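re: that chain from earlier
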Amino acid sequence: MHYSVLLNESIELLDIKPEGIYVDGTFGRGGHTKVILDKLGKTGRLIAFDKDIEAISYAKQNIHDGRLILIHDSFANLKRYLQSHNINAIDGLLLDLGVSSPQFDNESRGFSFRFDSELDMRMDNTQGVNCREWINSVTEAELNDVLWRYGEERFSRKIAKNIVASRDKKPIVTTKDLTQIIENSIPFKFREKGQNPATRSFQALRIVINNELEDIENIIKDAPDLLKIGGRIVVISFHSLEDRIIKTKFNELSKPKDLPKWVMVEESSTNFRVVAKKIKAKLDEIEQNVRSRSAVMRCLERIK
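^ sequence. v structure.
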């Protein structure tokens, strides 16, 4: 079953205006989208993005609402889309980052080490290089770098070395092939309790295959300037690499620029303010959906 993480809290932070223009950057299975539509008036509009063609197909089959515009693309291209449709500003943007539950739980998508399936990991499986192709062609040095930077995997060097040695004998084709190599690379005494040894590596590979951090950096660079006064950006992230990008940018935008002490400035000398920092899921939500345990939500508002 699909749960929308921090659903009520994120909608409350968006502070939806009935006639506003809003963007759901990650449609998924439409949990947030449906609630936003319920709060919009007749002239309100919602633009929903998703890389995954299955998510877009689900939306077309299950949501019939003239106020909803569906875009099969990355939210990173929001600015270009708005310009092409003569939309100058929006009232709010919601980003629920990372892989969605339907993607993770679909055996054929190759996101999870829980299944023995072909390595794919593409959120948009209609284009681009899949994980099987990438991992059988990447250099050992680049693989090590990806595992260390995006997975913060302490055994990145050994894993990369063993992957290259293994693929020289036989191509790595399935999630099971890859999981076994990773497990054999990490000494038992260094494995994290309650966590599969392949967790960090799978996260790193998924991030690089889908350009996830680059997409976040692009949207968080463009989106603040697209907000109307009073408009808000709400972001739900699931690991420190995502959250660090959001936190850094929100802090940068909301803090006054460093000026000499003798320069007189108003207290609200910035165009933005941070409305919410590091909101976490409550215990009852975590009990219902364990994925929400790692979620962190932040909100930025344009004030002038």
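Strands lie at 21-24, 45-50, 68-72, 90-96, 227-237, 272-279, 296-302.
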